[in-house]
Amino acid sequence: MLSGAVVPYLGPGVLRGVTSKGDGKPMPADSESLILAMNNGTPMAPKLMYEFPRAAMNLEQKKGRKFIERFLTTTYGDTQWSDSSFHQWLADAQLPYIIDINRDTQLQQCYAGRPHTLVVGLARIAGTDYRFKLYENRGGQYTEVTLDQVDASLPVLFKPMGTPLPEPNFIASDADYVDYITELMGGFAIPAFLKEHRLGKQYVFLGMRMLRDTERMVLSDVIWGAGNPAGWVLLPEPTDKEKRFCAKKGLEIVEADFSDLLQARQAA
């Protein structure tokens, strides 16, 4: 990973252990915990509990898109969370490219003192063909930049599902995902410099199950042009469905947890 040939791809499991500084509650990151947090702790209908985008679409139709944006901004932007040693370890490794499908700011905070480029996914935005925004961080402050202003020498944090910083933008509901995945397939959701940079790369998937259709569709397009094998998935007790998907995508399963990687690195 240190050379950049292998790219970390972070799923919700890497946020395990991050808790609110106010009440000690764990950060909602996976699909079920996000749905419960969004619905005041009350489970929704089984078909909606299956996947966060479904539940978000249901509440967006009832309460409006602003409700979803406020919930995610409050959860990830306004709440004070404990620091993640895993994210700090990744930042200390000074990796050139990281993909993080979570909507929190842990990684950005760890990179705050280091110049970097931030790529944030967008959906259902008028006035542009692109489904991303680009920011450059120097001196701890983000400045929006255009494609021709990107400094290719800087490390890249790619947050396809959004973040509250430096401004709230999120991919959340079914409608968001339909638009974003369509533009991913069309080539308008990844900036040109990343399309070139990703060719031949391999990936290590950390804290991510391979069960949710939306997440699998996003990763399929994000890692397009990967090497052979495409990478590795740290996946304890994989299901048959996960095994079939990984085999199809050229991903080798390692039956271990993401925390095992951190422990091995610390021991070394």
UniProtKB/TrEMBL annotation:
<dbReference type="Pfam" id="PF13289">
    <property type="entry name" value="SIR2_2"/>
</dbReference>
<protein>
    <submittedName>
        <fullName>SIR2 family protein</fullName>
    </submittedName>
</protein>
